[in-house]
Amino acid sequence: MRERHSAVLPDWLALYYRRPIEITHGEGRHVWDAEGNRYLDFFGGILTTMTAHALPEVTKAVSEQAARIVHSSTLYLNRPMVELAEQVAALSGIPDARVFFTTSGTEANDTALLLATTYRGSGQVLAMRNSYHGRSFSTVSITGNRGWSPTGLSPLQTLYVHGGVRTRGPYAHLGDGQFIEACVADLEDLLGHTREPAALIAEPVQGVGGFTLPPDGLYAAFREVLDRHGILWISDEVQTGWGRTGEHFWGWQAHAASGPPDIVTFAKGIGNGMSIGGVIARADIMNCLDSNSISTFGGSPVTMAAGLANLSYLLEHDLQGNALRVGGTLIERLRTIGASVDCVREVRGRGLMIGIELVKPGTDEASPETASAVLEAAREGGLLIGKGGGHNTSVLRIAPPLSLTAEEAEEGAAVLERALRAV
User: Fold this and answer.
1) Are 212 and 348 in contact (CB under 8 A)?
2) Contact predicate 360/354, CB 8 Å
3) How far apart are CA 18 and CA 29, in angstroms?
4) Beta carbons within 8 Å of 52's beta carbon, 6+ residues apart
5) Across 237-297, where does the E strand assignment appear?
6) Is the CB of residue 130 less than 8 Å from the CB of residue 119?
7) Is 387 in contact with 372 (CB distance < 8 Å)?
8) pLDDT digits (tens, 9 = 90+) for 192-222
9) 262-286: per-residue pLDDT in tens?
């Protein structure tokens, strides 16, 4: 299968592991490969299998909708799309919200940029260092992570702001309050040297960047500055939305003192594996486009049925609360392990969104080699995890389905401990 993959697919289409695996089926928090090996899944298809593999409520909704009609496009009224939009708008915290569905987080962020630049009449965008927002031409151009930015060409002028990474960079030595003050001063100074940007786009917790996050309140402080200049705030919730951080339903709510964002983007977990993304915005922003538009596949009846069933399951079973409880225990367990392993610099995160940053022992230097070795060792032990990071890919990314049990969390932590000690 690997040879066939290499013969017809791009060289830059990354695969995990020296001996890549083919996942054939899953159930709950576990998946199986083509050789019959069973794994505890701590990455969920890059934070996409949000509730559980083969969740009966979702598979039933997909099957029943597919038996009625699979596709119609947005040119026709679509009951599942309207019903999901109503729920998402109500949950968003944005007043007079409108929702536009896409097929991915990349497309959602691309749409948000179109809305913001049109509404503001500006092609300039503020973004965070170490950020990631997708793989389209426009979203690559605002991504602040060199490892995921394959071109220097850009349809936008992007200016990068401090603050997304708390424990590295020029302000790492400051206390939280001073850190926020320094980042706000940097933003103020930046705005004094440029024309008015359209928007600031930011992930409340940076995903590909290694689950880094600022102190609570940073984006609220930014918002006070942005509002004085009329600059919009786009919160990229592709990885943080739907209660994954445990403490909040949306990542932006850790920065809510100055109100909700103007635009929120989402994707990944809401479909539990089905291809759903979307944008939530105030009506005046969403309706600022003065030409016709449609989406051929965004908001399809089948994916919307999956989203409705998945969101209902998430809310009815309080998976946000489970992420808070089980995730909090798992983070503390991993911090205890990390304190006795020389290559662990930091264990960070919230809920079931946890990063373990690895370095060369005795230094502060990132160690992507160690991260790759631990990834391999964890797989050999029956655990699937991810990796990411900024200047170097040296962070283990842990983001299991939100229905993870306490027993499974301990099982995964034990495998990780063995893998970390082995390398």
Assistant:
1) yes
2) no
3) 24
4) 27, 28, 29, 272, 401, 403
5) 263-266, 277-282
6) no
7) yes
8) 999 999 999 999 999 999 999 999 999 999 9
9) 999 999 999 999 999 999 999 999 9
